[in-house]
Amino acid sequence: MDSGIGLLAAAAAVRRLRPDADLVLSSDPDGMPWGPRTPEDLTGRALAVARAAAEHRPDALIVACNTATVHALDAVRAELEPDIPVIGTVPAIKPAAASGGRVAIWATPATTGSPYQRGLIRDFATGARVTEVPCPGLADAVEAADDAAVTAAVAAAAALTPADVTDVVLGCTHYELTESPIRAALAARTGGAALVYYGSAEPVATQALRRIGAVAEPGLPRTGGLTVLHSGREAALPAAAFAYIEGRLLAGQGAPVG
């Protein structure tokens, strides 16, 4: 679940790990974006999206949104667990900081500098050199599959990223859909230095399988189905999803499994 197509990265990761998994993608086009909403309003929207997914009796629910994890995870867990395990999405600050290099955390303006993110830095990156990089407009540009807007937003964030950065945390699920432009912009910024990127999609997918007692079997035949919910209504993948390899994979259009 997510407000929009940021959930594609985690869903595609599950599909790669378990091609036989039936997936339900529950988003909220009627209420997005969630970021500018009050925590109470956002929690209400997130609960509605979670309830719509829960009606399909899933084995687990991934909250594939950093903002919803911050504000609504406890409420969603209180309502659905223990019947449905709920897995949140946390920026991969801990493994990035463990590398010992200089870390940049790309996140939405609302998350950058927030008590939540500062708490993660305090708990998991003490002593590390960490720069928080706000990325205004990037999630919206990804949601719209607007290449020009993505390029502009990525360039602006790259300009705020230290030239000696070694590790980059993608702290919004939308950003994982556009990792290639981010890599290109930062390669130009750092003189072509080899950077390490940390997303949340695969760790979250792995955690979801673990919570339900399943294991990764990427070699299985692809038999899993796909259900798409838009603010509770059954729908199709939005056109913007097909701009990304993750969306094409989920729709079965040319992207390999595994």
From TrEMBL:
Stored InterPro entries: Asp/Glu/hydantoin_racemase, Asp/Glu_race, Asp/Glu_racemase_AS_1
Protein name, entry field: Glutamate racemase
Pfam families: Asp_Glu_race (PF01177)
Key words, A-Z: Isomerase
